[in-house]
């Protein structure tokens, strides 16, 4: 990946590669790498397609690999003409998509987060719950599973987005029903309030954490990075769009 990044940077310096800006006066974007995944950015024109294709061919020849066409997609902005988009996607042989889908469980392109947007998180928790036979578990076993698995599933999403209160309430409702159990198809009566259950053990609780308590520290961490790590690319993009 280092060789590919170096080739793209060289193409930028000589003016062959045309990077894009997500925001007017924002930083230039030509490529993003994460592990073995990458996104290439460029203007939608025939010359740029040839430049990208030549660099990718050199990269594949250098490593002796081939691009997986089934796992590679091409995405155009709304301002690109449909006929031009079809020609470029046909030139590369990549499938044209209108959405990048999810990466590490998080949607890459989305509007404002709503309860429906994050419905998949609730469904993920519910599917995990239904895969266990709660009748075979003791109360301690249910609490342990709820603490280690059920409440850990949404924690990743909370780190990357502001999860609506309605989604948190639905997930905690699923966890409460799982912990207290069912009788004849109906939820058993809760013996103590959920706030008491989520208290630390020295204070009489079971040390379960409420999802609303997850959100605040993660959002504070993002805010701290925005203020302190101003040289990071993603922070430069945010500053160029939202800073006064």
TrEMBL record:
PANTHER family: REVERSE TRANSCRIPTASE DOMAIN-CONTAINING PROTEIN, REVERSE TRANSCRIPTASE ZINC-BINDING DOMAIN-CONTAINING PROTEIN-RELATED-RELATED. This is Reverse transcriptase domain-containing protein.
